[in-house]
Write a structure and sequence with these properties.
Oligomer: single chain
Helix content: under 10%
Largest sheet: 22 strands, antiparallel, barrel
CATH topology: Maltoporin, Chain A
CATH architecture: Beta Barrel
Number of strands: 39
Radius of gyration: 24 Å
Distance between the termini: 58 Å
Shape: globular
CATH superfamily: TonB-dependent receptor, beta-barrel domain
Structural class: mainly beta
Number of helices: 8
């Protein structure tokens, strides 16, 4: 495949192959840093602040259930509303949840959310939602936000959630997960939901904090943060971290052959990253920048590589900049405007039988959004907004670094524009309606119109019923349209979803929720191996399921949360079940203080049912148990913590994708996950 593509907007020309790297590619060597490995398996967990500091820490989990009913979330409708009045079954994960459960990565946090499941291919982590979890789909069907700012890039539409995520978990105030179609408010990629990561205010960081930790597989991490609020009300903060994991020699039974080191990838499961974050905020504005650079060894010989070659790795470089201004223009009119910039550079170092190759992409995007919220009409809260994004670079390159010969140079630019309207109408004390509509247009695809409707009925002071309908779309991205094919003839995927939700509060300390849903996807974009590896609109998918969750808060700050998910997703044409789609998922989280609040212990159980693989087989169901311990009093201003992951050393597999084939044509039948693992660390606050 030899082609040189250039495009501005929809115009595309095929030019002769170039043998020299363009300046933009030569300048892309801004990768490199540090290692990884940590994941499923492990030790004890956490020792924290003095009791007085911990008791003073404001956190949602210290609220009663009655207070949680009044909790406001902002991600469902782009304005604050009570969680019981949001047009979705919103899940909120707090900083205290993250700390108490000993979560190490963003993927770990999402693994604990009702209805979600994670697949890890020893390089990237992928989210499955409502029975849909295509291995290797780069998380393109969920929209990821950082303080409301889009994180999905403009080449792959990917969402990075493992050690490749852009932010340290210690900087997160809370995470809001809004399941279901969100294109009526957010446009592209809000297909199965929206995940908004909300960072801590500078005063929450409150001074200088340093931390260090060690973990299994030769892992260590160091980080620092500083936050301060000035007397004039201005707040500023910054943070940084460095992480290295040596990993272990990983055995793959499918590659067990004397000619390929008996299936052992030696020293190739390493992981390294470095991160920086800075934030400045006042009463009406906020400015923040986040940076991350990760290098990960690839032990799986993916994409037809030679197995056990030390030159195989990937590198992910990210920058996110967000400037936002908000002001109350009148008593009934609020205004918000923001500008943002993002960049993502990818480098894949691949080693094939014919020699080494490098796969690179360069993503750059600029955008702006403005919106008004009007409450001057009785019972109505009206939202109107527009969003524009310019993509000056959507570039992809594939070349031989030894000969500098390029087999692919695809350089594109595009833009996209969206307008949206929404009305939250309180008809009376019991009935509320939420109606939204968004129009989108971009130069790499066509026009899209997506509605949303929610009827919310407050049956009693303790019970809320929600009937939800919405559509969403995912436009084919630059990778799908132009990496394998110069034609780019793809249509957008479309989904229609019906959902019913019951939320009931038995008392001030007990909550129950049930969601039942059905959806249908048309024009699903998939890689057709029978068509010279082109992406085509092959699939139609339908699914239905239920998600049940119960939560009990106790007077001594203990909490129990249990969830169960049953789902059935199938291919409409064949009638068969989807790959990587467990029918059953169950989760339990329990934490409680010990020894007069000197310690807190948390236990987590996660069960994932059997999953089909693309090869026609399956990987077994499994359960993982994690335990975390936190101290509260041992040393003032010092937090010591320890965790054990996969306590019972359960050896299990995740389903592979069709990219997991080595240069000899051998396919992986399962992706081995970590056994027992541990982490211990210390945090000191000055």
């Amino acid at each position: 495949m030899e082609l040189f593509l250039r495009a501005t907007g929809p115009a595309i020309a095929v030019l002769p192959t170039s043998t020299q790297a363009p300046p933009s590619v030569r300048g892309m060597d801004c990768f490199h840093v540090i290692r990884k490995k940590i994941l499923s398996a492990v030790i004890l967990s956490t020792l924290v602040f003095s009791h007085s500091l911990w008791a003073a820490e404001a956190d949602l989990t210290s609220f009663s259930i009655e207070q949680l009913m009044e909790l406001e979330v902002s991600s469902a409708s782009k304005f604050p509303q009570k969680v019981s009045e949001a047009p979705a079954a919103v899940t909120v994960i707090t900083s205290k949840d993250i700390k108490a459960q000993g979560y190490r990565t963003f993927a770990d946090v999402l693994r604990g959310v009702r209805g979600l499941y994670i697949t890890y291919d020893r390089n990237y982590s992928y989210i499955g939602s409502r029975g849909f979890g295509r291995p290797g789909d780069y998380n393109t069907r969920i929209l990821f936000l950082l303080d409301g700012n889009r994180l999905n890039d403009n080449v792959y539409d990917l969402g990075l959630i493992g050690t490749e995520f852009i932010l340290d978990l210690e900087l997160i105030d809370r995470i809001e997960f809004v399941p279901g179609p969100g294109s009526a408010v957010y446009g592209n990629n809000a297909f199965f939901g929206v995940i908004n990561v909300i960072t801590k205010k500078s005063q929450q960081l409150d001074g200088l904090e340093v931390a260090a930790e060690v973990a299994g597989y030769g892992t260590h991490k160091k980080r620092m943060s500083y936050g301060h609020k000035l007397s004039n009300g201005m707040e500023f903060s910054f943070a940084g971290s460095v992480y290295r994991s040596q990993g272990e020699n990983r055995f793959f039974p499918d590659f067990d052959d004397p000619t390929t080191s008996n299936g052992i990838a030696q020293g190739l499961d390493y992981d390294r990253y470095q991160r920086l974050f800075a934030k400045l905020e006042g009463a009406q504005f906020v400015a923040e920048v986040a940076y991350s650079d990760r290098k990960k060894g690839v032990p799986t010989a993916a994409f037809g590589q030679n197995f056990n070659d030390p030159r195989s790795y990937t590198d992910d470089f990210q920058v996110s900049i967000n400037l936002a201004y908000n002001n109350r223009l009148t008593q009934d009119l609020d205004f918000l405007a923001r500008v943002y910039h993002g960049q993502y550079d990818y480098l894949g170092s691949y080693v094939f039988a014919a020699g080494p190759s490098q796969d690179r992409s360069k993503s750059r995007w600029w955008g702006t959004e403005a919106r008004l919220i009007n409450t001057s009409f009785t019972g109505h809260k009206l939202l109107a907004g527009m969003e524009y994004q310019w993509n000056p670079h959507q570039d992809q390159h594939f070349f031989n670094p030894d000969t500098n010969v390029y087999s692919l140079i695809a350089a594109f630019s595009s833009d996209q524009l969206g307008f949206y309207l929404q009305d939250e109408y309180k008809w009376n004390e019991r009935w509320m309606f939420n109606v939204g509509l968004r129009w989108d247009k971009d130069t790499l695809d066509q026009t899209h119109v997506n509605p949303r409707f929610a009827a919310i009925y407050k049956a009693s002071a303790q019970t809320t019923l929600k009937a939800l309908y919405g559509t969403a779309y995912r436009a084919p991205n630059a990778y799908e349209k132009f990496y394998f094919s110069a034609t780019g003839e793809l249509q957008a995927e479309k989904i229609k979803t019906l959902e019913g939700v019951i939320e009931h509060y038995f008392s001030n300390d007990m909550r129950f929720s049930l969601s039942a849903y059905r959806y249908k996807i048309d024009d699903l974009i998939e890689l057709d191996n029978n068509s010279a590896l082109f992406f085509v609109n092959l699939g139609k998918t339908s699914a239905h399921g239920i998600e049940v969750e119960g939560e009990q808060n106790f007077e001594n700050d203990a909490r129990l949360k249990i969830s169960y998910t049953w789902q059935h997703a199938r291919d409409v044409d064949s009638g068969g079940d989807l790959d990587n789609s467990p029918k059953n998922i169950a989760k339990l989280n329990y934490r409680t203080p010990l020894l007069n609040y000197a310690f807190q212990v948390a236990v987590e159980l996660q069960y994932t049912g059997e999953r089909k693989t693309y090869l026609g087989g399956s990987v077994d169901d499994f359960m993982v148990a994690n335990v975390t311990l936190i101290s509260a009093r041992l040393i003032r201003n010092t937090e010591l913590y320890a965790s054990i992951y996969n306590v019972f050393d359960n050896r299990y597999l995740d389903p592979p994708s069709d990219e997991h084939i080595d240069s000899s044509g051998r396919a992986l039948t399962g992706l081995p996950q970590n056994g027992r693992d541990f982490r211990v660390g210390v945090t000191h606050k000055f």
